[in-house]
Amino acid sequence: MTGLGRRGFLGAVGGAGLVVAGGAAARASGDQPHDHSAPDMPGMPGMPGMPGMIGTVGEVDHKRNGFHPTELLTSFDWGVVSKDRAGRTVRSYHLVAEEKEIEVAPGVVYPAWAYNGRVPGPTIRAVEGDLLRITLENRTEHMHSVHFHGYHPAAMDGVPGAREAAPGSSVTYEFTADPFGLHLYHCHSLPLRMHIARGLYGTFIVDPRGGRPRARELVMVLNAFDTDFNASNEVYAVNTVAFAYAASPIQLRAGELVRAYVVNVTEFDPVNSIHLHATMFDLFRTGTSLVRSEFTDVVTMGQAERHVIEFRYREPGQYMFHAHQTEFTDLGWMGMFEVS
Predict the structure, then answer these.
(1) In-domain check, residue 95
(2) pLDDT in tens, 148-168
(3) For the chain, how many structural domains are there in total?
(4) Which domain holds residue 135?
């Protein structure tokens, strides 16, 4: 992508310019400020007839990306399961670090570094006390690693000098899933901010023994993309694609308990947030307790902060959710729940 800075992208997604679908470059109207009240502003994809709403022109080629944001919501990797001699559950996972272009908004192609060809990487899930074996295969020309949040031996830390994978090589991390909660993993090779910003991260869920109450579960990774590499993001999203859940609203049922695993990996901005319209949620900070920390409708997080939130919608309808850093909303971090 060339010639489209943060302000230019604001104009493009707001309807003041055009994002060219299917290409590597984008065109916008320049530095005009975004006007939420513009009467001729187009509706969002999938939401016709809603004047004044923001969105993008065109559609992302999810097939070319190799993943769909709707699928990422409920895709959990439980590993290949076996038992050791003591009868303990062993879960084995395989991650591949590779370079891959992904379309983060219509026509906006980003040269990502990815685990298993997707950003975010697979959602690794286990139960407290399981023995985990994660093999990283590095198919790039750069050093890479996997650093997991939570307990593990120093030799398994996934930092320079402790289980880094050289280009063309593989390393294996082995540790016990502990403590239960919502964690994350990411590359910890240098320069650190580049390896995270380029897409090498994912969600790591450790369930408590006995599990949590039955609910519809969603994984929501808050991320962003610096498309012109000036240490300032132009595109914001949940699960990588701007306005993905405005174009394809998340389907829920009135009265059902929804549990969202919300992880912030946004680089270059000190905080991100999530706000749900027309409901409140129970907040379980880091997911390391089964007792709620707070009852609210918005939570602000620094990078690597993550929380479990649980909520219900009482009545059918379309309900918005978005970042309450409102510029992030304009730049792609906004979606809808379709409650039936």
Answers:
(1) yes
(2) 999 999 999 999 999 999 999
(3) 1
(4) 64-207
